[in-house]
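help with these tokens:
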Amino acid sequence: MAGKSGNVTPMMAQYLELKAQYADALLFYRMGDFYEMFFDDAVAASSALDIALTKRGKLNDQDIPMCGVPVHAAEGYLLTLIRKGFRVAVCEQMESPEEAKKRGYKAVVKRDVVRLVTPGTLTEDSLLDARRHNYLAAYSEVRDSGALAWVDISTGAFHVMPCPRVSLGPELARLSPRELIVVDGSEAEFQELADDAAISLSSLGGAAFDSTAGEKRMTAFFGVKSLDAFGQFERSEVAALAAILEYLEITQKGKLPLLGSPVREQQNSAMQIDAATRRSLELTQSMQGGRNGSLLSTVDATLTAAGARLLERRISSPSRNLQTLISRLDPVSYFVDRSADGENLRDLLRAVPDVDRALSRLALDRGGPRDLAAIRNAIGQATHLADRIIDDELPELLTFAASSLVGHDDILDLLDQALVAEPPLLARDGGFVAEGYHEELDEMRTLRDEGRSVIAKMQAEYAELAGVSSLKIKHNNVLGYFIETTATHAERMMSEPLNETFIHRQTTANQIRFTTVELSEIETRILNAGGRTLEIEKQIFETLKDTVVGNSAQLNQLSASLAEFDIATSLAALARREQWVRPELDSSRAFEIEGGRHPVVEEALKSSGDPFVANDCSLTDASIWLLTGPNMAGKSTFLRQNALIAVLAQAGSFVPAQSAKIGLVSQIFSRVGASDDLARGRSTFMVEMVETAAILNQADDRALVILDEIGRGTATYDGLSIAWATLEHLHDVNRCRALFATHYHEMSALSAKLDNVDNATVAVKEWEGDVIFLHEVRKGTADRSYGVQVARLAGLPPAVIERAKVVLEALEKGEREGGSNRKAIIDDLPLFAATPPPVAEPAKVSEVEIKLKELLPDELTPKEALNLIYELRGLVD
């Protein structure tokens, strides 16, 4: 391959030239049936993919590292590389080796990069999660105005919103884009945000963010004279939208995807939930990073990919618009009341393919016959679904959706007639066009597949015509197909009028050979039938693809309508199964939950057969609850479940409660659970204070705040003072609704000083030194924290538990006696080492156990047994 020292072969020169254009990406260089990588790319890829690193030739007396992956398995390797943070430039052969040789024996096959694969520009099913969006985002700032745009090229969703820099973190947490584009040179400003959200950061030159040039790019792309047709956009919004189009031009090499018209979102249209709160509440992924254990996984009963993505959007972005929420809740109520109708529709929805992503692949020339079949099948299922909807009382949202399910008969008929039931994956494989759709194709297939029978039929016809029963049609590599007969019969065939049909070709010792015009034509057609068959099918595929892509707007609306029916029927099925109720929403500051439950915890408890203890929560009269009680009693669960009920309600879902009245929540803030950020030098306490500061600086009077154990990471009095001041600030300044859990019992005095603070506690019961958690939230305060008892349940050594009791008793005694010098109290305690190990005491036998051992159950009358129950109950009380 490579020549002598310092020399570069033509092929390697071609590689290096292409690589120079994509220095920041791995170059997948097509070599026949493999994509090969060289030099540093090969070293990096072999390590990332765990494949062999070999070598190919030399350059400057140094071996050239090389590795490769098969073309047919490339998607799996691409996915691994993308997940590990690489970008990949896919370089294909633009001609065959035979075509290259026409230019000269040593001519190098023409190659070019056809696509730059990045995390935000994936379209293949194997590289994507069908139930999640794959967003590419761009952030732009023009003067003092910021904007965030995002697109999912696999579905065509295209959005933009005004977004000052301070709001960028929460919005990125909401959208979870895979890739963020910023102006070249500003990467360092966004790196921390990108790292927090696990987003790949990319950059473009300043010209890509130019709003004036960007407006021209946008109008040209959408074929309009002015962007006013889509709404009024700020300059920063146009810049962000245009940057995305520029990036797609670069990565897709001019093959732009189907994009919907840009939709402008208002910043206050959705409930604000910052990144820390999303992690704490585990809205779309659990603390472990997976989908299992999240709120989304618990409530997701959708049956279509589009429905699943719609549900994720609504869980991630709960609405603040009352009319929007009513329009979403009405369909759920409709199917809750008509369960049989809902289940009938769900049976049909199970077979609905992903229309949006099939369309996107077709538009980018990455689709195949199965994508066409997916659209055909989706239209067919939508037609059946529309036939099942005969009720005139459909809610408005479903009425509009139902109207989009029909009107696609022309496309359906075309695809039904053109495609076989189960087409192959790739158009180049052929065999996807139905028999009878194209006359020439059927003929070519007959010649290709039944050439022998065609020739046999011709032989019989010629034998009859010539009157020679021994006439044969044969084939060899020199003459091709020919007619052969004996010399005796040949004389007749060479005389008139048969000589006009049979043309003499060759005479041998014993036989004479002929051909005919028809046989020559058939021979050519048989030899070319296979290639011609694939050529015709490719032409048919292109025609079908163009027709489908030309109707993309209607088909995208069809997909959106199916998603609406999917989400309405799935949430209704969930509500019926779990006995959830429709929330009553208004614009007040009400928050009344009766019998509320934590949906994720309740689902987890089912596997063990344990019931979930439901609890009420009322923040209407007293907008802040100060919650006390021991660890493990369920305080954190109670805090989170009320926040999740608000999220579900404003996502358009029924909620896990007996009843729920909620004044629309503008923001949810959660500071629950301990964590550190050692990479940035932040202790657990520092993280807690940073997140608390964000809450106090941002929460408005419509917010819902849940706080757990503020101030626990520092000295007792420091922590108490911080918690005390935080609660006062929430009450006096933020004036929001809040649940505030604490172990500082001294804070319960605030309920007498602050008008909108009530005390509540999680009930427990002590039994012979152990604590029993009842998980019931009641008005009032806890008398103590039961920390020692909880430590005993956790398995601390008995010696440590006994020592803790001694210290606790001494400290509490000092407090009761008015002592203020804790150091003196501690100094009076004997050292732990001097304390003799506790002697194991014989287990105490309760009166109940004694009574039960004395019983003879077989001798008890029913009345005596009943009296015994009352007696035992008295002993327990």
Q: What stands out?
A: The CA atoms of residues 501 and 518 lie 9 Å apart. Residues 1-5, 832-836 have pLDDT under 50 and may be disordered. The two ends are 92 Å apart (CA to CA).
